[in-house]
Amino acid sequence: MKSPSPSLASLNAGARDRSPEGTAMLAGSTGKHIARAGLGRPGARPEHQTERATLAVDVKALSKSYAGRKVVAEVDLQIATGRIVGFLGPNGSGKTTSLRMLCGLLTPDAGEGRVLGLDFRRQAAEVKRRVGYMTQKFGLYEDLSIRENLDFVARLFSMPDRRAAVDGALERLGLATRQKQLAGTLSGGWKQRLALAACLLHQPMLLLLDEPTAGVDPKARREFWDQIHQLAREGITVLVSTHYMDEAERCDELVYIAYGHVLARGTAAAIVREAGARDLEDAFVRLVDQATDNFAAT
Ligand SMILES: Nc1ncnc2c1ncn2[C@@H]1O[C@H](COP(=O)(O)OP(=O)(O)OP(=O)(O)O)[C@@H](O)[C@H]1O
Ligand SMILES: [Mg+2]
To answer: Which residues are CB-neighbours of 174 under 8 A, at least 6 positions away?
Structure first.
């Protein structure tokens, strides 16, 4: 039986930018800026709900090398509780590696900080229990049904009332009618729903979603994003990697990485403006071209 990826578990989090469009940091300005967002996302929570906001992710100088090559290079990430942050960058830029370090599955070479108020290096086991991680590749058992997969995950987390938790997840993600279907026979959109249900089961407060909509049709992608916005309204923080620009536009703020270096962060509007670009895609093409000159040989 194909083994599932450990998709595990989170909690707290800083002040928000209250300007209409927010600010962006582009590489070349200050490398130590905190990611800040405006209120561009429809349904953004009113200010009174943000006053006691804290940082769900507050990590500095995160680094990882493979065979002497730095694939994540001194990455700083600060994400306020309840925000949806898009993690963008070309193939091989270090997104998955960063996400895996944040949720305690991969040991960083360097970097300090807190995830949900916990020391993400020294309390990695506790971080795993509190963060929901959706892997880039479908990681559940193909030869178990939807319900069996969810029940298995509930056992992994030693959840006290597994049946109620699984019923709730089936209901929430619209999976109840297909609960007996084998995961291996599901289409891409349904597999993605199951994967999201599995990583929500233990009620994490931080979701790390790695290209959750890759290969999923537009209607399923829209439904998925509606779910993400609903979860954020409930106070859950989301860091989501994607290659889709329409999805990037639906995030509160963006972090753009290439060659393991953060090149830009801020609202979509601010990044476009500060890059002097036509749109986000144009901004990122310009940023990657600059980064190739700066980092490709390192
Ligand atoms: N276990 C590993 N051993 C060696 N190199 C690795 C390992 N994991 C990742 N890498 C390398 O680190 C770099 C960053 O990989 P990573 O998977 O983090 O990129 P990514 O931004 O998620 O890319 P994609 O958009 O294609 O998913 C790549 O060059 C990759 O080949
Ligand atoms: Mg990846």
So the answer is: 193
In testing the pocket of ligand 1, which one of 5, 64, 65, 95 has its CB within 8 Å of the most ligand atoms? 95
| Distance between CA atoms of residues 218 and 128, nearest Å | 31
Query: Is CATH 3.40.50.300 what the domain over 24-295 is classified as, yes or no?
Result: yes
Q: Is the CB of 92 under 6 A from ligand 1?
A: yes
Ligand 1 pocket member 191 (CB < 6 A): no
In the chain, where the domains are located: 24-295
- Condensed to tens digits (0 to 9), the pLDDT of residues 246-286 reads 999 999 999 999 999 999 999 999 999 999 999 999 999 99
97 Cβ contact list (under 8 Å, min separation 6): 64, 71, 72, 106
The model's pTM: 0.85
With beta carbons less than 8 A apart as the criterion, state whether 61 and 75 touch. yes
Judge contact between 210 and 136, C-beta under 8 A: yes
Are 215 and 188 in contact by the 8 Å Cβ rule? The answer is yes
% of the chain with per-residue pLDDT over 70: 82
* Calpha distance 148→146 (Å, rounded): 6
Confidence of residue 53 (pLDDT cuts 50, 70, 90): low
The secondary structure of the chain in percent helix, strand, coil, rounded to multiples of 5, reads 35, 25, 40
The residue whose two tokens read 């200050």 is 30
